Here is the input.
Amino acid sequence: MKFRLNNFVLVAVCFAALIGLLSNLDSDIETLLEARIASRKPAIVVNQVGYLPQWQKKAFFRQYSASGAKIKQPSVAKLIDRDTSKEIATLSLKPATVDPDTKDAIATIDFSQVTQPGNYYLHGGKLKSAPFSIGKDIYQDALVKLLRSYYIQRCGVEIDDPISGISHPPCHLSDGIIARENQTRIDAVGGWHDGGAYNKYVATATVTIGRLLSLYEQNPDLFPDSQLNIPESGNGKSDLLDEMEFGLNWLLKMQRDDGAVYRKVAVATWALDLAPDEDIQPRYVYGISTPETAKFAATMAIASRIFESADNQLAERYLAAANLAWQYLQTQSDMKVDWQPEDDSGSDRYLASEFNTEKSLTTDIDDRFWAAAELYITTGKDIFLSYFTDKLEQVEYTLFEWKNPAILGMTNYLQQQRQPVSEGVINLIKIKLLARANLAVEQATQSNYNNANNRFIWGSNKMAAEEGITLINAYKITNDSEYLNAAIAQINYLLGRNHFNQTFITNVGTNFVKNISNLYARAKQIKMPGLLVGGANATAQDKRVYPNKGQLSYADDELAYATNGNATDYNASVISLIVNLITAQ
Here is the structure.
């Protein structure tokens, strides 16, 4: 009896302790998350890749400062040559101001007058910045890593990469079963794994390819053969075009005979702790949609004109697919999406949802607009020009993304020299572009970290890059350095001049993101270089970061899928920002 009583008391004590633990769980998590988002250690934060000689060059002294706390900062900072240890310049710090969002006291260190190429760091008091460089070619390594990321995420083929060490047999060779039609299959093998998982999405693939092919169209000399050391290197064609061809050929498989395009290839249950080749569950092809069909048409139209000189037969195939998609759209007067709730049990939706509430997701006009723009530039046909000009007034100039791709149609129309243009159309596009750029400059000026993006939601880092691209386009129109400097500030933020003193691209910079939320990286504990992560997300869907803290709602955590995961379109945006910046002057 005594033994039973003692055990009963022990169980009761343990139960009471458990109840106490559970009652304090929320506050404990809150304390943990608070500690993770706000480093109390002062730092000098810089762009950890560096600055072009002609750029404005600014770093920040950053110190957490609770309301009313006394701010202590170095009186000066010294720019030191890393190779010789010589002092290059002594720099005064402007008085710190407290950022209301992060509670960081931020003082600016301006060394724009230093243009000598070299390797440097900043030193102030007991603080030392991460190393960085000044030079014309300092972004080449980052660009190659960002571009090579597509190769290491290829699906349906063997990967054996001597540079990253990533290797696995061919994966997902049975893609895919038409959802809700279990007896029907199509060949949907190929493409890129996306969203930090093994699913494949037309929405992100199209805007990725459209963005990067447009970048190539403006700067073909920057993307030579053998640049990326991929299997196709040495074939006499740009490695970028080779990689985009891999994605384009998967997109072709996603088109039905009537021209409509399926939305995605995905699993019914998220794969966990498996390498790509170990994920053998059935993979489904989910329903058609007019937004994806229109984005497909735009991307194929761009591809057709880009590939004309490299592979005319392939270019003709892409154009035929674009025309077929456009023909299907003419049979649908309104947006059409074949979607059921169960379609998203193991994949992302990429449609309007509680987290994606933008007005553009209620219509496909913006998607059709992009298709019409690209088809006009490629073919010169009046039917496409008419749709483009008729809808220009009502299409909003926001950010180029899968939610609203119309913006690329506008800027490609501005920059192309293939077809006749209307001065009235040109002027209206410029008005729209500059209005958006002015909002971005205003936001960057108001932000202590000079962020042009103040929407810390899913993919905020991509949004910062896209705001930067808009600012660069405004600079090209006006030659106003205010736009250029605001654009430079966006790459500075992404590459380390932020609260976390961290670059948001794996293996780029010194203090780079290390615990990316990616299924393959988690499953095999491997490093995947050159991936931009999503960034701060105040909605905190993954519950791994503190919600509603703006840019502090971020953690370098492999389970933080809503903030620390990657996606193909994220990389396309930061690649485009970097190339636009280095070619701006």
User: Anything to note?
Assistant: The longest strand covers residues 58-64.
